Predict the 3D structure of the following.
Amino acid sequence: MTTPLTLTARSRPDGTPLLKAVGEIDMSNTDALAAALDATAGPLVIDLTEVDYLDSAGLSVLFAHADRLELIAGPLLTPVLTISGLADLTTTRGPDV
Amino acid sequence: MGTEGARDRPAPAADVFSADAEVGKDLATVDWATHPLGPPADWPQSLRTAVSILLSSRFSMWMAWGPELTFFCNSAYRRDTLGSKYPWALGRPASEVWAEIWDDIGPRIDTVLSTGEATWDQALLLFVQRSGYPEESYHTFSYSPLRDDNGHVVGMLCVVSEDTERVIGERRMATLRDLGSDPSVVRTEEEMLAFSGRQLSGNLADLPFTLTYLFEDDGSARLANAAGIGAGHPAAPAKLPTGGAEGAWPVAAPALGESALVPLDAELFTELPTGRWPAPPTQALVVPLLQQGGSPYGFLVAGLNQHRPLDDAYRGFVELVAGHIAAGIASARSYRAQQQRAEELAELDRAKTTFFSNISHEFRTPLTLIMGPLEELRGRLAQSDPQVQQELEVIHRNGLRLGKLVNTLLDFSRIEAGRMQATYEPADLAAVTSELASVFRSAIDRAGLDFIVDCPPLDEPVYIDRSMWEKVMLNLLSNALKFTFDGSIAVVVRAANGEAVVTVRDTGIGVPAEEMPRLFERFHRIENARSRSNEGSGIGLALVQELVNLHGGAISARSTEGEGTSFSIRLPFGAAHLSSDALTPQAGTSAAPVHASPYVQEALRWLPGGQRGASTVDTIDGEPVTGPGIAARVLIADDNADMREYLSRLLAGAGYEVRAVNDGLDALDAIRAQAPDLVVSDVMMPRLDGLALVAALRTDPRTAAVPVLLLSARAGQEASIEGLQAGADDYLVKPFAAAELLARVRANVELARLRNHHARWRTALVDSLQEAFFVCDQDGAVIEINTAFTDILGYGPENLPYPSMHPWWPDADTDPEAHRQVADAFAGLLDQNKGSYTIPVTHRDGHRLWISATFNPAQDPDSGRTVTVGTFRDATADHYAIQRDSALASLSTCLTQAEDLPQALSAALAELKELWRATSVLAVVFDRGDTPTLTATEPGLTWQQLPAERRQALTDLCERPLLAPTLDSAGAGIILEHPDGPMALWVDLGDQRPFSSEDQLLLSLLAGHLAQGLTRAHQIDQQREIALVLQRAILGPSQLPEGFAVRYEPATRPLEVGGDWYDTVSLPDGRIGIVVGDCVGRGLEAATVMGQLRSACRALLLQDASPARTLMALDHFAAGVPGAMCTTVFCGVLNPDTGRLTYSSAGHPPGILAHPDGTTVLLDGGRYAPLAVRPGTARPEAACDVPARATLLLYTDGLVERRRRPLTSGIDQAGEAVQAGRDSAVDDLATQVMERLAPAGGYDDDVALLLYRHPAPLEMTFPAESEQLAPVRKALRSWLDQCDLPPRTVQNVLVAAGEACANAIEHGHRHNPGEPIRLRAEALVDDLHLSVVDSGNWKPPQPELNAHRGRGVTLMRAMMQQVTITPSPAGTTVGMHTRIV
C-alpha cells in the first residue's frame, strides 16, 4: 500500500504555480512528488502545511528543485526542513493566517 | 527401571559365564533352575556384571550373592584357596562352603551387608580344610559390598591374596635372624646354646619344642639345651646311649650326618607340649649339627607344626636352624681355642719384654764376637766372590745397627736405673764438636747438601763426657741428614749468657707445630714425615735430651714446617753443676770418635749410591722348607732393601710366588691389580705405613678379605694390639726366626682359605632367604645382595657396587612423586641406619614394583665399619589391594555426591585421571545420534577434535566384551554399559607408562562399579526431570504478554514450586487477566493446592472477566479443596491499550502502582476476606487507571513480610525499589526488586512477584517493502500516544524511526525485498528506546552519491539523543534512544 498523498496543482493569484500536498511523504511515494515537480517549470510554491510526515527521500526530491521552490510548512515539519538545510536554500514561510 | 534399559538390548556377552571357559562351564552345570537365584537369563544386570568381573579377573576372588549368599569364585581362587572343594562349592551357600571358618568370616560378611562398608583384613589366620587336614593359612582380603540394580547391598565380593608363604616365611626368617643376632655376647658354648634356646622358644609355631644333643667322645649324646619342653620330660632324656636303638631319639643317623623323621606315637611321647597350637606335634625331625670337615657336633630334634606340611621350605628352615646352632658351636669352640692361644701369646710377650729389658746387655758379647771375626773376614775375603762380599756387607751393616740399638737401649736402662757412669772432663767444646761434625761430611756431601761448620774456639772449657757428647752430636746430625733433601746443614758453637751454645740447624722438612711438644718424647715418631728412611726407633732425640740433662744443660728446638729445624744445646761453663766424683782432669785425647761408624754407615745406606740392586731370589740351603700345599702368592712390602731381599729369598725358597715392593702405596697398587693370598708388610714404611696399608685394604670391599701379616721391630703388647686392631691378621716382631715366619705365613694362608670357605657358606645361607637381602656401606652404596634381590628387582651381583641413586629408583622426571618417596626412605637409611618403608621401585625391565623394606645397622665383622643390612619383600600385591579398595571407595563417594548423570560421569573421569595420573580420560557413549557423545576430563573437547585413529580405536572397543580392558601404546580402554548405550572409556597415559595387570583388574572393577553408578544416576535423573516438568506445569504460563515480568522463588529446595503463584490470562476481548495468590503453607502439599486454585481461577476468568465474581466462584471451589481455605488472591483485569485495571483482593497485600512522577499509590480497594472464609458473600471490586510509564507491582507477602517489622514498611520499601528502577527495562527491574528486598540469608518464604509497565513495549516485524512504511508509522504513532509523550517528541521519534526503516528497506534488503525487518520500541519511565533490525548489509556511506541517505542518518541523529548503527554479517541494528522530558 502506497502511503496516502494527494497532490493538487493550482495557480496563485499572481500566477505563480502552487502545488498543495496533503498526507505523508516517504520513499514509497516520492516518485509521484517528483513527477508533479517535473511537470512544472519556473518558480513554484509548494504548500506542505497539511503534510504530517516528510522523510529524507522526500527531501531529496525537493532539494533537486530547491533553486525554484518556495515552501509553505507548519511547525511539525520545521525541524526537518531546518536540520536538512533545505530551509536555507529555499524561501520557507509559515501558512497564511 | 534400570533393568528395562538392559532388557531393550541383548546382553553383549551372550553367556554370563563365558569369561572363563573352565569355571564358567562348571558354573553353568549348577542347577540354577531350582536355585533361589533362578536361571542366569533372569539375573539382574548387577549380578551379571559382578559375575563377569569375577570370572574375567586373574586375581583370586570369590563372591556371595543373594539371600543364601550363593558362592561364586574364579579360577585363580580355585587354584590358590579352594583346593579340593571345587567344583562342589559352586552355587552353594557360602556358610556351607566355608563352614570351618564361618565363625571368623561370617561376622565380617554381616558387617559388609548391614553397613555397606568394605572390610580389610591383612594376613588373617584361618584353618582351612582343603588338603585333608586343618591347614594353617593366612589371607589378606577385602570384602566389598555388591549392590543390586536398586542400589541395595545384596552380596559381597572378596578379593583375596593368600599370604601363607609370606607370613610363615617371615616368621621363620625372624627366628633365623634372632639366632644370628648379636653374637658378640655369646662367649662360651653353654651361653651360645642357652641363647639359641631362648630364640627358638620365640617361635613355638614352627618349632613347638626343640632339643639340642651334643655327641660325647664315646658316641653317646647329652642333652645340651631344651626349648619349649621341660628338661625332665620323658621325651627329653639327659643322656642318649651310643647306637640309640632303645633311646627316645635316633643317635646313629645324625652321627652319620643324616636327618630322620620320627613319628611321635610311642608311649613316651604322650603329653608332649603343644607349642602355639591346640594339639601336640605328631612328628619330629632329627637334624645333625654338621661340622666343617668333621663329624657332626650333635643333633637337633624339632617338633613339627601339625598344621603345615613338611615341605622343602619347612625342612630347609629346620636345617638352617641346625646350621646356625652348629655354626655357633664352631665359633664358640674356636673362640675358646683362640682365647687360650691369646693368653699364651700374652704370657710369651711378657716373658720377652722381661728378657729384653733384663739381659739386652748380653747381646754385646755375641755382637762383639760377630763383629770382630766379621771385620777379619771382610779384610780376608776382599778379593773373593762378589756375592760373598755383598753378604758380608749386609751382615756388617746390620751388625753395626744392632749394636747401636742395643747400646742405646742399654743407655736408657742405665739412665732409668740411675746407673749411668759418666766421666766429665774439661774439653774444648768447639774442637770436639767440629771434629764430630767432620765425620758426617762425606755423607752430607754425597746427599748434595751444603755443610757449614762454624766452631770458633771458646774462652772457657766445658765439662763433657766424651762418649755421651758423641751420641748427642751424631744423633742430631743423623737426624738432620735424614730429613733434609736440599739446602744445608749447619753446626755452630758460640758462647752466650755465660753458657756454651751448640746449634745444629738444617733446611729440611721441619716439624709440624702440633708435634713440637712431643719431639723429645721417647719412642715418639712423627707419622708420615718425608724422610730418607723410615728406619729408626724414635728414641734418638729422647736419648739426646737425657744426655744433655746429665750434663746439667738443656736442649731446645725451633722448627718451621717446610723450612727447617734448629736444635740448640746450652751447657754451663765450669764444673760447679756437676758432682765432683765424676770429674776427671782433661785427658786431651783427640782420637776419632769411637761410636761414629754405625751412624755414618747407616746414613750412607739412605743415599742413592748406597742402595742395593734388584733382589735376588734363592732358596736358602739348609732351611726346612715348610711351604704351602698349593701354590700361593705372597706380596712383601718393606722399605729396607736387605729385609726385602731376605724375605723374598726365604719365601720363594718355601715355594711361594713372591713379589716385593718398597712401601705401602706400591703394595696397595699391586694388591688392587691382583690380590695375593697373603701380604707380609713392615709396619714402618715411608709414604704409607703398614697400619695405614691394612686400613686402606679393609675399607675397600674388593681387598677387605686379603690377609695381612705385619712385621715390626716394635716389641710389646701395645704395638701388637695396635696392629691387630687395625685389622692385621697376624703380627710378628723382629727379630724373628725364619721358621717362625714360614709357619705364620703358612697358617695365615690356610686360615684365609678356611675363612673363604665360611664366606661361601654365608653366601649360600643369604641366598637361601626368600626375602631380598642387601648390605649398604656408609654412603648408601649397595655392596652385597642375594639371589632373591635379583629375582625381585632384576639387578644382579655382577654390577656391584650400586652407588646411590640406585638404578631401581623411579625416574625423577617421569615419576617425581615415586622418586621422592624413595629419596625419603633412602635419607632415613643414611641418617638412622634403621627403619621400615614401603616404597615404589622400578624393575630392571621397567615395570613398577612396591617393596616393603626393613633395615638395621650392623658392624661389618671384617672391617669394623658400620654398614646397613636390609631385607625387603615384594609388596606389590598388598599395595594394589589397598589401592583398589580406596579407589572403589572414592569412586563410590563421587558417584553418590553427583547431582545428575553427566556430573556423575565427569566426577568419575576426574577420579580415574587422578588415580592413574593420566594425561586425560575420555568416555564416549555410542547412543542413537550420528555423533557419539564425548565426555572428557578436558572441558570443551569434542568428538571431531579427536585424532581419527583414536576415534577408530574407541569405535573398535565396542566390539570387545564388556568390562575387558584393552591396551595400546598410549593407554587403556574398556567398554561398559551407559544408560544411553555402550560407553567406551579411555585412560590416556600419555608417556608410554606401563599399565600392569593390577591396573587392568582395577580398571575392570571400577568400570563395573561405574556402570552401576551411572544406571542409578540415570534413574534419579529421570525422576527429577518428571518432577520438574510437573512442577513447571502447575507454576504459571510459560509465555507472558508483553510488558510483564515475573519472578518466583520457592522456599523449599529442591522443589521449584511452592504455595505462591502468579498467572496471566489473555482474555478473548484483548484484555489480560492478572492473578497473584498465596496458599497457606509451603512445600509440595501447598503446591498441589496452588495448582488446583490456579487452574480454577484461570478457567473462571475466561468464563467471566470480572475479578470480583471470579473470586466469589473461587470461594466455593476452595471450600471443597482441603488446605485451600484462607488462600489470599489478587485478581485483576487489565486493558493493555488504555491501562484500565479492575481488581478484587481476597485478603491479599495491596498492589503497588509507581507513577512516573515519583509518587506511589497502593491498590487497596476491592478488598474482602481470604478465600473460602465466607463463601457466598458478595465481593467488592475496584478500578484504577495505570498511567503511561507507570509500573504496577503485585507480589506475595514473602517479598515484604519480615519478622519484627510492620508489613507497611516492607510495602514502602518495595515501592521505593520500583521507583529506583525507573531507568531499567521491566525484566531487569524484576531482578533488581528481588535483590533489593532479599533478606541477608535469602528468602525464607515462597515469593511470587509480577511487574507490569504501561504501555507494553511495541514489537513489530514487517517485510522490507516501502509500502509498509505508512502502516508501521501508524502503529508506532498510536503506541507513542499511549506513552503520553509531548507532540514534538512524537514527531521526532516518528522521523527517526522512519529513516531507520527506510534505510533497512533500501539498503539492508535492496537485493531481497520482502525480508523481515524488526522494530521494537520500549518506554521506560524517563527514557524511550527504539531499535530497527534488518538482516542485510548496508552500503558503505557514500554521501556524494546518496546525498539524501546521508541526510537520513543526519536526521536520525538530530531527532534522537543517541543513535548507534551496528553492522554485522547477520544484519544491521540501529539503536536509538531519547529522554522523555
